[in-house]
Amino acid sequence: MNFEKICVLGLGYIGLPTASTFATHGLQVVGVDVNAKIVETLKNGSVHIHEPGLRTLVEAAVKSGKLTISEKPEEADAFIIAVPTPFYGDKTGEHNGEPHKLADMRAVTAATEAILPFLRRGNLIVLESTSPPRTTVDLVAPILEKSGLKAGTDFYLAYSPERVLPGQILRELIENARVIGGVTPESAQAGAALYSLFVKGEIIQTDATTAEMVKLMENTYRDVNIAIANEFSRLAERFGVDIWEAVSLANRHPRVKILSPGPGVGGHCISVDPWFFVEAAPDLTPLIYTARKVNDEQPHYVMALVQKALGSLKGKKIAALGLAYKPDVDDLRESPAAEAVHLLLDAGASVRAYEPFKVEGLPGIPMAASFQEVLHDAEMILLLVRHTQFAEMKPAEVAAMTSARLVVDTVNAWPREIWEKAGFHVLRLGDGKRTLSA
Ligand code: SAJ
Question: Which pLDDT score, from 0 to 100, does residue 295 have?
Fold first, then answer.
């Protein structure tokens, strides 16, 4: 198949890098977004997303004339849909009395409908948005077939998940292996021909529903594995065991790789994607559902740990280190660290947070502008994210900034023995060997 012009619908974390990469690889690309503000920002040469290297790439693509930005699609050889698939905030589903989230597929539906007037025989349509299993065949195909053309016969239709790591999107987009699932083998082949224009990793062809399920399985696998690490940490506290020691010993087994417990699971993928399975098949997903619940409970667990350390929470001055959803990123979406801080504030503690990657923090959370400022009148230090700069702090440096000598470490960032020698009391999540009085 020969591709000269494509439309990419949705210019977010995935769509914009994808559109720009195709443009810098020689295709004529129309980047489409329904958000007029995003369209205007991009037309003015700015970029609304923080991602290393993205600004330069978008500038190059726009300057070369290969990337144009629009609110509407146009006729093209291929269309890529990369719009958000969030959950409804105001309604949930239910199975056996247990509530579960419901995917809001309105953006996928609207993007597919927007393509309809421009669909021609021989076109390729690829859905990239993370979606419930069977979305490509049950939702996207019927909309496109309103044109009178048949999916797989008159036009090609495929699903291809993105698996890039925020912070490394541009490199991983090119280097990662890519799965392309077609509604027919010819559709998968057409998808492979398109992505091979820039993908250097292996391109593997399959059917559309398998490709959808692969994406959800990858992130669900990780969520369930983090949940068991969190449950192990609770058991370790009950049985007087240090979970961090126990995990490192168990991981000496050649076929065991237990992940790390922590304040919970955040971000826009791992904490979200398992719900697509639960919604689609609640009768078959008790394990996946329970793992989600275990990980969502972790911020409450952190609050209980802090309460144990301080006695009561009312009015206690706590310095919270980190609000990001994971180390060394500026992304605060669905962050369990932020959730733990909210819970402590609601319980009457006087918390101030410091997030070096996003100093302005989040609404409703009192922020400090520096490490010194967050520490100076604190009674307790609460480590919530293992940012490298926190992990590298020396006890003597910290001791010089604050009179607080009580540390609750939820991410095993500060080696207990070293910090205790320097005069700190360290209570770590999952460390049943040490209580404060020990
Ligand atoms: N976490 C733990 N313990 C661990 C590992 C992670 O509590 O041992 C927590 C993190 O702190 C974070 C959450 O889990 O809150 C998720 O972090 P992550 O690094 O597992 O995942 P994401 O959401 O940053 O990115 C993932 C990536 N998947 C994997 O690393 C397996 C990426 O490849 C996917 O493309 C991305 O999700 C996505 O878009 O689906």
Answer: 98
